[in-house]
Specification:
With about 500 residues, the chain is of the alpha/beta class. The protein contains 18 helices and 23 strands. The model has no long low-confidence stretch (mean pLDDT about 95).
């Protein structure tokens, strides 16, 4: 039996997942690393910590699963998007990696949109936000000119791992799309953007497809980890794209609901769509395809905040065990999950969360259900943007993350989205997508065959209840008014609290 390894480089840890040719997970290991915030709004990491974590994970996997030494066929990667890695003359990092969740670049984003916003949207299909790579580059140019003068290579996190294994400087289209430097439709670095912002194309990595083989593992590493045969290395992709592949989102009739700390509503796109910057739009790891996504900044984070504040000693299952007794709409109680601002569709860092409609009949279970409903309503905003633009409704949705762990929440999703909801038997996230990329690269099958083999869904699916669909449609119409009603209040309170 042959195996593939998917390495997912996340914000707080690196995870390695080994899958066999039957699509079964046979081994998994993780290693944590720290995040540095030297100033308010800064979020940085040392790329050397990623390498150390990767070494630890590989060492442990080989030790616990020795068959890998002879039978590991290929490795691919999934990684946090947008984060900036800069290398100098010796191809070593010369500045800490500036991460996707770093918000130091508000000034640069404003300048980009003021001076080049229409052109940027036309070329990249996205607007400039603090998370993207281009504003980080401009910040480095302006605030660290000596460092910028020494930069010889720009990279993204997962590509730094690929470089570690092969000495090749490459990135795939899905990760490149998150830099705001890629012409999404032409699939090439944009000459217009590079000229506008004085970026030399020579420092950018070579563009390849996610399933392209970029090399084989260096002999020094095969000896270090004890591999007895060549191990192929494949480019891999951005974490959201890999997560979509790992969940089986490979056609336009379905959507993916992913609820972690933030929430993502994404859909597969065969052709270019014009969302006018209201949604993110990126190249996919699936060749000649795209995906769109809307983001709720505090999805699972809203539920975690509620539990920690009002039920700290209880588990999530205990907190939510009686929400099924509360009617749809929580008897007039609404929650807006804007506790850290909001992304889609408002792009507002000043808005804050709220409970609205509280009266004396509302008990803790009402509040708990209202939190889940508010999170789901926020993701429905993205659903409507996609469906209205494409003029079609999604037939089914795949739910992953925290929202797939509670049957009541899954039924709530079916009723609010008015679609069939299914979930995965084994949820491995972006790491599974990286394994599937390696499997395709190794020639184990075409995309459709790999998806059939590697992705399995729970037998139980959740269908919309017509009565609750109608009720939620009424409640959602009211909920949509909360943002405008509280926007100015939130901003005033925020200024008062500074």
């Amino acid at each position: 039996m042959r195996y593939v390894l998917g390495i997912d480089l996340g914000t707080s840890s690196l995870t390695g997942i080994v899958m066999n040719q039957n699509g079964q997970v046979v081994a998994e290991r993780s290693s944590d690393y720290s995040l540095s915030s030297p100033q308010s709004g800064f979020s940085e990491q040392n790329p050397a910590d990623w390498i150390a974590a990767c070494d630890q994970v590989l060492t442990e996997l080989v030790a616990t699963f020795p068959s890998l030494k002879e039978n590991l066929a290929g490795i691919s990667f999934s990684g946090q998007m947008h984060s900036l890695v800069v290398l100098g003359e010796e191809k070593q990092p010369i500045y800490p990696a500036i991460l996707w969740n770093d918000v130091r670049t508000s000034k640069q984003c404003q300048e980009i949109m003021a001076n080049f916003g229409e052109e940027l949207l036309q070329i990249t299909k996205n607007i400039a936000l603090e998370g993207f790579t281009l504003p980080k580059i401009l910040w480095l140019q302006e605030n660290e000119p000596k460092v910028w003068g020494k930069v010889r290579h720009l990279m993204l996190p997962k590509d730094y791992l690929s470089f570690y294994f092969t000495d090749q400087l490459v990135t795939d289209y899905s990760d490149a799309a998150g830099t705001l430097l890629l012409d999404v439709e032409k699939r090439q670095w944009s000459r217009e953007i590079l000229e506008q912002f004085k970026i030399d194309s020579a420092i950018l990595p070579k563009l390849v497809a996610a399933t392209d083989q970029v090399g084989v593992m260096k002999s020094s590493l095969t000896e270090k980890f004890g591999f007895t045969q060549p191990v192929k290395i494949f480019a891999g992709g951005a974490d959201n794209a890999c997560g979509a592949l790992g969940a089986g989102l490979v056609n336009e009739d379905a959507a993916l609901i992913s609820i972690g700390t933030s929430g993502v509503f994404s859909s597969f796109e065969k052709n270019i769509q014009d969302y006018q910057g209201k949604l993110h739009f990126f190249n996919h790891v699936i060749p000649n395809s795209y995906y769109s996504m809307g983001v709720t900044l505090a999805a699972g984070n809203s539920l975690s905040w509620f539990k920690d504040s009002f039920a700290k000693e209880e588990s999530f299952s205990e907190l939510l065990k009686d929400i099924g007794e509360i009617p749809a709409g929580s008897e007039g109680l609404l929650f807006a999950p804007y506790i850290v601002g909001e992304r889609t569709p408002h792009f507002d860092s000043q808005i804050r969360g709220s409970f609205i409609g509280i009266d004396t009949r509302h008990q803790r279970d009402h509040f708990a259900r209202a939190v889940l409903e508010g999170i789901t309503f926020s993701l429905k905003d993205s659903q409507l943007l996609m469906e209205e633009t494409k003029n079609k409704a999604f037939k089914e949705m795949i739910s992953v993350g925290g929202g797939a762990k509670n049957p009541e929440w899954l039924q709530m999703q079916a009723d609010i989205f008015n679609a069939k909801i299914k979930s995965l038997v084994v949820e491995q996230g972006p790491g599974a997508g990286a394994c599937m990329i390696a499997a395709i690269g190794c020639g184990w099958g075409q995309l459709s065959e790999i998806v059939t083999t590697f992705v399995n869904y729970q037998e139980r699916v959740f269908f919309p209840n017509e009565e609750k669909v109608a009720k939620y449609a009424e409640v959602y119409t009211i909920w949509q008014k909360v943002y405008q009603a509280t926007k100015d209040i939130s901003s005033s309170l925020l200024q008062l609290s500074k």
